[in-house]
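Example 3.2
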Amino acid sequence: MSQHKRRTGKGRSGIDPSQKTTVLDEPTTVERKQQKKQILKFVTRTLEKMPPGLRAEFSSMKRFNDYEKMKAFKEAQEFGKNRYKDVGCLDNNRVKLSSPWPHEYIHANYVATPSNPKRFICTQAPLEKTCADFWFMCLQEKVEFIFMLCNLVEKGSKKCYEYYPSKKKDTMEFEEKGQKITVKFESSSQYKFRAEAKAKVIATEILIEGPNNETLKTTHYHWNDWPDRGVPCADMAILELLDTARPSKGPIVVHCSAGIGRTGSVVMLEYVMDQLISGQSIDDADKILVKIREQRNNSIQTDAQYLFVHQVVLNYFRKKKLMEEAGVQEAHDLFIDQYKKSVV
């Protein structure tokens, strides 16, 4: 019998309150000086391009599927394991389900940040016939946090199967060829953001029970007002959720419906934060996106999502007083005006 033990003394967000939140805490004078150097090139390039230049940059990075690099995805098509026929899953870094699970395929990829080779698992929203696979993956990978960025139904279309328990349905059982997974509701509450934020997020504590008596507690964040192919308010909400999940040792599971648009936006934001925290210069945004797409194909679907990432990052830098040089805030004000017109 193996059991994965969680931290004790958790606060309202499922994490030890004594844990330093390295992104949202105020930087020291020395840290601020260092961070100003790190962000200089990124900020300069972003404010030179402004939203029209960034939209042109995004449109030049065409999305496509190279099915020679997605053989397992193609083979899984006939078994109904893929939500969308045109959203592929790369072979080179896909998550493989191991024994005693009856098959290895799941539409999910590991995605790295500079300091963590398996920081994320990006996956599609579970289908009725992939719920057991999803929960076994979480158990296998010792996932402590799940980010759900879509709703079950959006604009009249089914985007996700009801795969996780709630107060109304507190225990759910899933089975795949004789292997059973039980998922139990423990508690839920509206996530209370430290900073002012418009996002509506429900945090649910869940207990997973699987083969060989393995158990795992995980925290499920359901962001229920992030529009499909659109963007939410560019405040600090997503950075705070990432800050909460960052100390976890296992991968953070992120999914929307296809697992590439809203999901890719979250991954790109953490990539930037990871470079900031680890003291690296922040890469150009287009280079970051290429690196992410090499791991999760076609990540970030719209120019609005690409702009959103930049706006959140710039807002964060400004909040941390990292953009105080002459003319920078004025340029950012102009960026904000153009951003609002671009993402309507």
